[in-house]
Amino acid sequence: MPKKSAQIKVTVRQSKTAVPHAVKKTKVVRKKTAVRKKTQKNISSKTTTEHVITHTSSKKQVVSAIFISLILIGCLAISIRDTQKLSANSTNQVKTSTDIGALDEEYSELRKRATEIITKAKSAEITVVDEQAIYTLLDSIKIDLATESTVQAHKSIDRASSKLDEYDGEVSNIIATRNTAEKKSSNAPQTGIYTPILMFHSISANFEKQLQSLVAKGYTTLTMQELYDGIKEPSKLPKKPVAITFDDGYVDQLTAFNLLKKYNMKATFYIITSGEASNWCVGMNRRRNQAKPCGNDFMTESDIKMLDRSGIIEIGAHTVDHIGLASLDAKKQAFEIGESKKVLEKLLGHQVTSFAYPYGSFNQSAITQVINAGFLNATTTVAGTNHTSNDFFTLSRVRDPFKLN
Question: Contact at 8 Å (CB) between 285 and 301?
């Protein structure tokens, strides 16, 4: 029994010795395997890193290439744009040059037309045309052309053309109305008393000779109030009566007044008082300091007082704003007629009884308003020399003293 026990111990001992050797061998194998895997991992990691580096470098090169291409494309685009712009500028310069030439021709035609309208108005003694305003419009066109402002030049030309159309229409209508009235008057039989009334606006260079002609023919001058009294009572009239009248109250009519004094001749001055409807551009109360040009100069309140106190001049009314009365309704007619009378009577301190229709424009309504305002007589532009008491508010006038008997 004891021997068997010893054998078992030996076996156990040997078994204990064999196990550590096998474990050790296994550890070595595992270690080598780990080293190999680590080496492979390092190799793989290195390969990956090199690949990333290579890929990154390649990406940078692509980006750089794209950036350079974009720059080149941008430069090319700018070059094309500049070329197109240069071509457009060249085309525009040619176009502008052509436009300026065409506009300059239009300007020349407008200036020629303006001269014709102004001349026509002056020859017919029509004062509706504002000569200074026309030339101001034409000057603005000239400035636009000088600065090559073609757009503005087109607008200025349109404004000037429109204004000339307006003036041309008014002048033509007034002349046509006069011609119709004068034709009717010439065809009508001359009845009543020979009492010619002369009509003046601006004063001509031969005005003194016209006065001398009246003196030489034996005429005696009367104011309109005196002529009115004489038609009512013919016994009060001189052998050859004549009334001299001046419309509008232009400042150059003061020259006529000095000549009238020289020959001791009487006359009636019809005065525009001025108001809002005319933009305060006409008449004795015209506002001379305003920016808008207003054309002719008019006598002042002081001038009119001086004429009234001279003893040879009667002051009559010629509306507030010098508007053709036939174009207005009754209410506006009443204002233009009645207000001008009130303003003058307040200025002069006595009644104003004589009236003249602006442009010779009137209708039955206007006649009614003249009567209602308290006037005793009113003159037209209808041609004629003979009058009766039925004509007190449609008195005719003539223009040429040399044609009187």
Answer: yes
Name the nearest CA neighbour of 241 among 225, 259, 260, 262.
225
Which DSSP symbol is given to 188?
S
Assigned domain for 291 exists: yes
Structural domain span for residue 262? 193-403
Q: Is residue 49 part of a domain?
A: no
> Number of structural domains, the chain?
1
Provide the whole-model pTM: 0.60
The CATH number that applies at residue 281 is: 3.20.20.370
One pLDDT digit (tens) per residue for the chain, 405 residues: 444 444 444 444 444 444 455 545 555 556 555 556 555 655 555 555 555 455 555 666 766 777 777 787 777 777 677 666 655 555 555 445 668 888 888 898 899 889 888 888 877 767 667 787 888 888 889 888 888 788 888 888 998 888 888 888 878 877 766 565 555 555 555 578 999 999 999 888 999 999 999 999 999 999 999 999 999 999 999 999 999 999 999 999 999 999 999 999 999 999 999 877 776 677 777 665 555 556 668 899 999 999 999 999 999 999 998 989 998 999 999 999 999 999 999 999 999 999 999 999 999 999 999 999 999 999 999 999 999 999 999 999 999 999 998
Could you please report the per-residue DSSP string of 6-40? HHHHHHHHHHHHHHHHHHHHHHHHHHHHHHHHHHH
